[in-house]
Amino acid sequence: MNFIRKPFGYEPIITKEDLQKDHKKKVDKASDWKGVLKGIWNLVDEQRFLLVIVLLMVVVSSALALVGPYLIGVIVDDHISKSIFVGLSKIIGVLLFVYLFFSIATYLQSYWMIGISQQTIFRLRTGLFEHLQKLPVSFFDKRQHGELMSRMTNDIENVSQTLNSSFIQVFSSILTLVGTTVVMLLLSPLMTLVTLIIVPFMYFAMRWITKRTSKLFKEQQKAVGELNGMIEETISGQRIVKAFSQEGRMLEEFAIKSERLKRTGFWALTYSGFIPKVMNLLNNTSFTLVAAVGGLLAYYGHVTIGEIVIFTEYSRQFTRPLNDLANQFNTVLSAIAGAERVFAIMDEPIEDDAALDNADYVLKGNVTFEDVTFYYNKDDESPTISNVSFHVDSGKTAALVGATGAGKTTIMQLLARFYEVNGGRILVDGISIDELPRHTLRSQTAFVLQDPFLFEMTVRENIRYGKLNATDEEVLHAAKEANAHDFIMKLPHGYDTILSADGGEISQGQKQLLSIARALIADPAILLLDEATSSIDTVTEMKIQEALERLMEGRTSFVIAHRLNTIRQADLIFVMEAGKLIESGTQDELLQKKGKYYSMLTNSKT
Ligand SMILES: Nc1ncnc2c1ncn2[C@@H]1O[C@H](COP(=O)(O)OP(=O)(O)OP(=O)(O)O)[C@@H](O)[C@H]1O
Fold this sequence. Notes:
The protein has 606 residues and is an alpha/beta fold.
């Protein structure tokens, strides 16, 4: 497939139907502007006073911008054309003062505005990150991670740029437009008419262009989000991509997405590139009209030369803010689209939490499931977990067995309250888990997964993740207990070796040992363990087994068991099938029963 196209060989990508659809959508979503502005206003928070001062500065500088041309007109009419130079120095002094003060006012307004916008963006970024941390696991299940990352970076950057510059410019442009019109009308309604004759043309030209660009900018941001999503997935899953030799397919998919971004980018920039050109043309036309008609009127004594000078200046001053407004329009539109996407996440409901009454509760680890039913999706025909009931005493080990997809991992995730049950109750020490603050429950529950997640931090920090205030001695002790110390000491910088985000430089078994050390240091009452299925060399496997035995001692443990030995040693065995708990008991009880477990065991032996 050839992905490289001639730079100008693109088909226009907006049809009339698209524009009509888009117009309808805009009408439907008219309130979003208000919502976005309200959201930003809330974020400005305690800097609102400074913002008001900035706005006052804009008023002052816009007024000063009107005084300059007027004074030049006065100089021409009262001094130059009459050759009277008395008092000229005074008026030039005032003019210089006006220009100086104008510069100071514009400098101050942009200096303060940068401070306000950076602080606002800081709040927006931190708020979004904080909100993401509080969202339920189910939120992340449904979304592409790279796309979310794009909201944290690109969209926020767009809002930031608008707040930095566009905000002041838009406000000042509006003030200048209104101010200039008023002053022009007071001076000469006839000349005002000549100056403003160009405005309807500008309006229609702008409408034609922005109708197209606003849709394109939205599409461009969406395409950036999708592309980022794919890049993130491909980089984090690059081993799988390579293992299945999918590089070619990924490249094709990437090229298609990238091509879409290129096409929307091309048209967005092409259309928005018309804006300054069209504006310039209309601007110069207006300038020429004012000079020509003004000259004619002056000839017949209707206006003075000074007034023509004032109006030629004002005609520039009038079209410049229009030009600015037109230019800023796209930036503002793209920022609003970005802000909408950010606020959409902020509006996602966070996990509600229990009152803090039980916050200091120390778990003993008695776990009870009472008729628990759970659906991942409301529309699923049958529940993922249906009517499961069991009890595990504190300190005991329960092995979960069953075919893939039977619901073993789900049982564990429900116990850690990653998802809310749809029916029944889960109790720890007789307390329903929704009466325990999540932090209380999760800080005393630890996961040891097959493929544990390691952070791009030192080995020491990765172990300390289980208990952030652990001392170096505690880290060392946990690593020794987890049989991880020896291999850590062989790493280039020992405990200070920085691991890559997926722990690519250490083996699967070593990752498990680190994850056991992390769980040991957390000292949880309840352990949720997914036994490794991948083949690990016998020495490492023995080390893992030994470390796990130490870890499980005295704690309530749920193990997704793959080895017969683990199952045999468990106090209780739960056999799961299609979300149901079909058998439970000790190894002996289940063997005597000669049911599913018995047949699973005999089948695996044959
Ligand atoms: N986040 C999710 N969203 C929707 N469905 C899910 C989700 N996670 C798991 N499922 C579905 O729920 C069912 C039970 O999955 P679960 O991971 O609990 O099975 P399991 O017994 O642990 O399987 P395995 O031994 O393969 O890990 C499966 O049909 C699975 O497709």
